[in-house]
């Protein structure tokens, strides 16, 4: 029987060679490959600055730090995401405020976001869920009108575009993850992109204990001199990971092509059946980290597929329904009814570049049989 996951990395000999080269070099961390990887991702995403960190969650934490989020501050987030999107607000002592998603795309609904704004709101984090950019025009307009920063959790959306504008250039900051199921794998890894020099400085300090890294200041004061200005963390990425990232970035266009090809075939085969893919808004070029369908009897279908060797997943349990959030923020059912209803029906089907045509045929056949 096959064993088909919902997502997995593609690693080839070039990647292995790149990592081996890094291991033989002078720098295992904080070396030249970090800057190379940052430049590669920032250039690809049409952003001025990229700051590599140890994972996507650290990237979100850094973004909240750079915005100065603290106790008493509210940040608006959608519930249809991985818990880390909201956890990063709690790390800084701020309060996540959940705003519901659009029923057709499951992206943060700008009207619901606006309704959630109070005099304590400092920022909006929106998730480019499954790899489709949010309505950033509406969200940035909200940001300007109410003086809020916008942050894209772009962990699903490396390579997506909105009206020909790249994810990475659509919000004040954009966060990526390089976990093996994402578009580009570094084992663990993350990055924050921005066009703002001050945010870039702040992010760099945060990932390195809050120590200022201004080389000129150091040179003037003596090369050994450094000062800790802020309470930062060690969230650095290694050169071993960055080497893998640089090598993977070269293949990203091919990865995206293959993901889009797989999505197009699912779309075609499921048209007119009771397997319902999410809507894609016009002007969107989707990056397809996930291929999410809605089906009734989801739990039964999940079980049957599992028995057939197809390991689908549910993305996501709405964050406000996790026990931690219920206990500490007092959230409950009814807060975001659209997300809650979607949660009962969604299933992520296998989607990764190495999925073969035969494997996809098998998945389609099993899904259609199961429903
Ligand atoms: C993967 C992911 C993260 C966290 O990234 P890690 O690298 O696993 O820490 C955050 N948000 C979303 C939407 C993700 O998919």
Task: Walk me through this protein's architecture.
- The chain is of the alpha/beta class.
- It has 13 helices and 15 strands.
- The strands form 4 sheets. It has a 7-stranded mixed beta sheet. A 3-stranded antiparallel beta sheet has the order 8-7-12, with no helix packed on it. A 3-stranded antiparallel beta sheet has the order 11-13-15, covered by helices on one side.
- Helix 3 crosses helix 4.
- The mean pLDDT is 96.
- Bound molecules: pyridoxal-5'-phosphate (PLP).
- The site of pyridoxal-5'-phosphate has 14 residues, from helix 3 and helix 4.
Topology of this structure?
Elements: E1 4-5, H1 13-24, H2 32-44, E2 49-53, H3 56-66, E3 74-77, H4 84-91, E4 95-98, H5 110-115, E5 121-127, H6 136-146, E6 149-153, E7 161-162, E8 165-166, E9 173-177, E10 190-194, H7 197-207, H8 215-221, H9 239-270, E11 276-277, E12 284-285, E13 291-294, H10 298-307, E14 310-311, H11 323-329, H12 337-343, E15 346-349, H13 357-370
Parallel strand pairs: 1-14, 3-4, 3-5, 5-6, 6-9
Antiparallel strand pairs: 2-10, 7-8, 7-12, 9-10, 11-13, 13-15
The structure holds pyridoxal-5'-phosphate (PLP).
Pyridoxal-5'-phosphate is lined by residues 55-57, 81-82, 84-85, 127, 153, 155-156, 177, 179, 190.
